[in-house]
Amino acid sequence: MKNRLLIFIFLGTFMLACSEVPEPTENSSSTEERQLAKFEPGEDHVLVFAGQDLESIGGLPDYQQGYANHFPIPAGVTLYTGLDGNDGSFGGENSGGLQGVYETVDHGNGPSNMSLIMSDDNFKHSALAIGLSLVNHEDKVAQGLLDHNIKRLGEFLISLGQRPVFLRIGYEFDGYPWNFYEREDWLVAYKRIKDHLDAQGVTNTAYVWQSVGWVSDLDQLEAWYPGDEYVDWCGFSFFDRWRENRMIEFARAKGKPVFIAEASATISDFTAKFDGRTKETILSNPEQAQEAWRKWFEPFFQTIEENADVIKAIHYIDCNWKARPMWFENPTFQKVDARIETSEMIKGRWIEKMNDPRYLNASEELFEKWKAASSILD
C-alpha cells in the first residue's frame, strides 16, 4: 500500500491527459519472434486482473458488491503487503510484516487477505499479483535484516502450489517523492528477495519490475534495471500521464512483456500539472462517465491494443477512492469513484471489451496452460 503522506504531494503532479496515443515503434516485434516470459499468454492475449482490496474485487461471501459480482471472474487479483511492519498510518497497527497475507487487515485502503481469496472457490482459477512494498525498509532488506520475512513469503508462495503469482517487488521504484527509495539499496533488496526465493524452491512466481511509467527516461530506467535474469515482466502504472510513458519502449527493447500493474480512471483538472488536482470523476454521474470514457478508457484500451506485442496483462483498480481514508487528502484520488459497475454505459462497454477473445479471464483451460508454462520454464 502507498501509505505515506508524501504520496499526496507527488501524485499531485499528474498533468492533463491527452487523447493521442503514441504509435508502436517501427522496430516492434511480434510476440512470436521472442521467447515467451513466465506465465505470458501467447498471441495478442491480455490477462485481466482486478483489485486492489477485497471490497473492490468482490465475489466473496462477505464482499458481494465488487468487480467479480458484475463481470467475469478475472484471470488474477491484486493485493498488497510489505516485508516490514506497518508504521501505524491510517489506523494500521505495527506488526512483524506481511500483513494481509494470512489475516484480514485494512490500513486505510480497504481490506486485504491473500489467503482468504486464494482459498475461495470462485477464484480457484485466478492468479495472484502481489504489490510488495519496500518503503522505509529497502535498506533493511539489502542488509539481510528481513531475511526471515522473505522466508515466510516464500512459504506462502510455495503453499499455493502451481498457482501463478506475479510479484511486484518494490513497485513504482522510481516514485521517489512517495516511495523515496534509495536506488542502490533498492537494487540490492530486489535481487536479494529473488535470490532467496529461488534458493527456497519457489517456482510459481513471475517477477514484475514496475515503474511509475512517466517519471524516468530510458537511461534512468536502465539505471534501475536489476538485469534480465531478475525480471520476467516489466510494469508501469496507467493514471494520467500515460502519454509520457517510456516503459513500453524499454520493455520491447529488452524482449520483456508488459504488465499495466495499476490503472484506474482519473481526469486531471486545469491545474493538475502544478498541484495534482483531478476533476471530480464519479462514474455513476453520467456526464462524468462520458468524459472518463473519452479521456481515460479509450486511450487505455487504445494503448493496450496498439502495443499488443508487449502489453500482456492489465490490472484495473475498481475502487471508490474517495471513500478510503488513505486518499482523503490526496489531490489525485480524493474526488474519484472509479467503480466501472456504477455506470451503465461504461459497464456495458467494459463487458463488450471483456467479450473480445484477446482479454483473458479466469478459466480452467487458462490455469492448465499456466501450470504447463511453469513446469517448462523452471
How do the SSEs run, as a string of H and E?
A: HEHEHEHHEHHEHEHEHEHEEHEH
| Total number of helices | 13
Report how far apart the termini are.
Answer: 30 Å
Biggest β-sheet description:
8 strands, parallel, barrel
Could you provide a short overview of the structure?
The protein is α/β, with parallel strands linked by helices. It is built from 13 helices and eleven strands.
Describe the protein in words.
The chain is an alpha/beta fold and 378 residues long. It has one domain: Glycosidases (TIM Barrel, Alpha-Beta Barrel). The protein is built from 13 helices and 11 strands. The strands form 2 sheets. Strands 1-2-3-4-5-6-7-9 form an 8-stranded parallel beta barrel. Helix 3 links the parallel strand 2 and strand 3. The radius of gyration is 19 Å and the shape is globular.
Keywords:
13 helices, alpha/beta, 15% strand, 378 residues, two-stranded parallel sheet, TIM Barrel, 31% helix, disordered N terminus
Produce the secondary structure layout.
Layout (H helix, E strand, L loop, with lengths): L6 H4 L35 E6 L2 H4 L18 E7 L31 H5 L8 E7 L4 H5 L4 H13 L5 E5 L6 H4 L3 H18 L4 E7 L6 H7 L8 E6 L8 H8 L3 E6 L8 H4 L5 E2 L3 H21 L4 E7 L18 E2 L6 H11 L4 E2 L3 H14 L1
Parallel strand pairs: 1-2, 1-9, 1-11, 2-3, 3-4, 4-5, 5-6, 6-7, 7-9, 8-10
Helix pairs in contact: 5-7
